[in-house]
Amino acid sequence: VRPVAALLTDFGHQDPFVGVMKGVLAGRCPEAQVIDLCHEVPRQDVRAGALHLLAAVPYFPDGTLFVCVVDPGVGSRRRVLWARGERHAFLFPDNGLLSWAERVEPLREVRKVSSKRVMLRPVSSTFHGRDIFAPAAAALLRGLDPALLGPRIASRVRLRFPVPRGSKRGLRGEILGLDRFGNAVTNLRRGDVPRGAALFVGDRPVGPLRRAYASVRPGRPAVVVGSAGFIELSVRDGSFAERFNAGAGEAVHVR
Amino acid sequence: VRPVAALLTDFGHQDPFVGVMKGVLAGRCPEAQVIDLCHEVPRQDVRAGALHLLAAVPYFPDGTLFVCVVDPGVGSRRRVLWARGERHAFLFPDNGLLSWAERVEPLREVRKVSSKRVMLRPVSSTFHGRDIFAPAAAALLRGLDPALLGPRIASRVRLRFPVPRGSKRGLRGEILGLDRFGNAVTNLRRGDVPRGAALFVGDRPVGPLRRAYASVRPGRPAVVVGSAGFIELSVRDGSFAERFNAGAGEAVHVR
Amino acid sequence: VRPVAALLTDFGHQDPFVGVMKGVLAGRCPEAQVIDLCHEVPRQDVRAGALHLLAAVPYFPDGTLFVCVVDPGVGSRRRVLWARGERHAFLFPDNGLLSWAERVEPLREVRKVSSKRVMLRPVSSTFHGRDIFAPAAAALLRGLDPALLGPRIASRVRLRFPVPRGSKRGLRGEILGLDRFGNAVTNLRRGDVPRGAALFVGDRPVGPLRRAYASVRPGRPAVVVGSAGFIELSVRDGSFAERFNAGAGEAVHVR
To answer: Which of B14, B21, B36 is most worth mutating to test chain A (most A CB atoms within 10 A of its CB)?
Structure first.
């Protein structure tokens, strides 16, 4: 079976950065199957990358190595980490990028990537995707013992997941992010929305939980359980984000 | 030979949706070769997706399975269909997305995808690309007998192809779509433009048929036979769409 | 080992052009590994494509065939060329697109692609990526003797590389291009910036050379050696391009 690498970056598509990472991978592990998970994470937005990983990781085959580069600290002393969970492995900067995915796949072993032997020489100060992440990934996909990457570490940077909490205006959740269609993914789950309850953004009602977009008329807001298991706020055949002028971090109340 | 899947969606690149579909495919059919046909179909624009398929399908190898997800009806009772033509096979929502490609490759067998055995469990109401299309594609690429997907069906949703027709202002065609370069693809063919005839958008002349963009000076409009066999309206080293402020559906006359 | 093709175009992602090229490649050379180097080169911007190739070519495995289609002259008499350097091979239009990469990998043999046997029939006047580049690439990846493509040629179109030069305001370099993060890549190298010198865009100081973005405070400009070996102008956690309202071609002085 070909080893699988899944790439998540904020490099976008206008520059050759992602292509160069794949060039390095192809040279050092030609048998790898490389899958683009996403490269349009908003630049330096660790939280958006964390949400993508939370939604995507469970759907990749066992053994997939996620190579995650949303890395505002590149060139500083922030560490590059390797970790493995029950089913997958990960390379990522020590900035919390993996914290939300850890909620569905706890990490069993975490190491600092410090061995110069898995890096290109010289290592630039601006493109560790090419100089550290890609060659380390190639080495791992070829079977390198992860113990050779560097020492186990005890602590790492955590990104807090905003857990819904009670408030005098009802259960208070928030918007975690928006997708291309203008749907807002919240941190609420089905069990957080009792029968008869409705959702509100500020004072504006969005409605009760629906089975599907098609349960409302075109142009009307719809609250559905989204594909990542979280409650999503939508407008059928429209954009919730535009209609409600809402973005990540905005409060959503259930009452 | 590795089985080939070609993906066409309106998921865009900012979200992990396409990556997740590939994760499901990689887990269930690791030997598949997965080709991105296009993921930037304007959202929910079935007509734009239909035009892409019409232009692209003939150039893919025999046996390619096209997995097509431009699907405003996701979560409603619209059906997911599988079909095969003489050379290729297709998975697509029953909304007309394949109607224009059928003009070049008629369908010989059409089935409703209803077997739960080829779907993930549970099936979400918002992401059938992940829960139905990708796993059904993987099963087919691994050799599943299509008869096990579900029953043959007799009728399906059709998207009308706008055939050029006579009018008192000359043969009336229309713009089917625009490309990145601002070229306008029309529904006219070479045989629709007699020697000595010129094309008009409204009252504005675009000129006679040319051999290539280079037949006119930079900045001038050029009418050429485009790569899909349709007449295209261009501006050399410029954008026809911007210069003529024209878009899909706009009338084009030959006289 | 699977043969590797790297694709660089200005086709973007909204149209099926890149997908169609891959369809042709998959039909004619199913064993090829096809890597997207970049498809968002600004349209018809040969200079931007040349910069991408200069930065990327060295990181691809030996034997990679670069298929480069930034081609404003498509359909005119401009030639399609094949060339090989010490490690890689190239298909490209004769417009200077490869001139800057030649600075790091000189070409040893250059041929005109004229054999109809490696092209689709008919050849359109607008989409040589599909009709010439992709099938010629597939033939080469399958082992075609390049001598069968067409005759060797002695001269070709060159794109001048702007070498820094002395001026009364100090060494005068220029901005070669911008990346997604708003960093400006210049034509200056580390050796062009003596200790104690600073860089200026117009009269505005950008500062001395730093080790990394993290050497300055967030929001401050930083001059670093970028990943392609050129001096880059940045703003930490911000956009140099926006802050300094600067773009390709703009003068940068060292003094």
So the answer is: B14
CB contact under 8 A, C19 and B6: yes
When pLDDT is cut at 50, 70 and 90, the band that residue A149 belongs to is: very high
**Tokens 């699977």 sit on residue:** C2
Q: Work out the minimum CA distance from A16 to partner chain C, whole angstroms.
A: 5
CA separation, residue C122 to residues A104, B125, B176, B232 (Å):
54, 45, 23, 17
CB pair distance less than 8 Å for A44 and C4: no
Give the pLDDT mean for C219-237.
Answer: 95
Query: Counting one residue from B and one from C, how many pairs have CB atoms under 8 Å apart?
Result: 98
Cα–Cα nearest to A27, from C92, C58, B200, C175: C58
Size of interface A-B (CB pairs under 8 A): 96
Q: Are B224 and C11 in contact (CB < 8 Å)?
A: no
A8: nearest CA partner in chain B: B16
pLDDT score at C119: 98
Q: Summarize the confidence of residues C134-155 as an average pLDDT.
A: 98
Closest residue in chain C to residue B211, using alpha carbons only: C125
- Residue C252 tokens read as 């940068």
pLDDT tens track, chain B, 255 positions? 899 999 999 999 999 999 999 999 999 999 999 999 999 999 999 999 999 999 999 999 999 999 999 999 998 899 999 999 999 999 999 999 999 999 999 999 999 999 999 999 999 999 999 999 999 999 999 999 999 999 999 999 999 999 999 999 999 999 999 999 999 999 999 999 999 999 999 889 999 999 988 899 999 999 999 999 999 999 999 999 999 999 999 999 999
How many Å apart are CA B233 and CA B240, to the nearest integer? 7
With beta carbons under 8 A apart, name residues in chain C contacting A126: 183, 212-213, 224-227, 232
* pTM of this prediction exceeds 0.90: yes
Amino acid C129 reads G
Complex ipTM, two decimals?
A: 0.97
Q: In Å, how far is C122's CA from the nearest CA of chain A?
A: 32
Q: In chain B, what residues touch A59 (CB-CB under 8 Å)? A: 20, 23-24, 27, 130
Closest CB to C59: pick one of A73, A76, A130.
Answer: A130
Helix (H, G, I), strand (E, B), or coil: what is residue B89?
strand
Q: Which residues of C touch A22 (CB under 8 A)?
A: 35-36
DSSP chain C: ---EEEEEES--SSSSHHHHHHHHHHHH-TT-EEEEEES-SPTT-HHHHHHHHHHHGGGSPTT-EEEEE--TTTTSSPPEEEEE-SS-EEEEESSSTTTTGGGTS--SEEEE---GGGS-SSPPSS-HIIIIIHHHHHHHHTT--GGGT--B-S----------B--TTSEEEEEEEE-TT--EEEEEEGGGS-TT--EEETTEEEESB-SSGGGS-TTSEEEEE-TTSEEEEEETTS-HHHHHT--TT-EEEE-
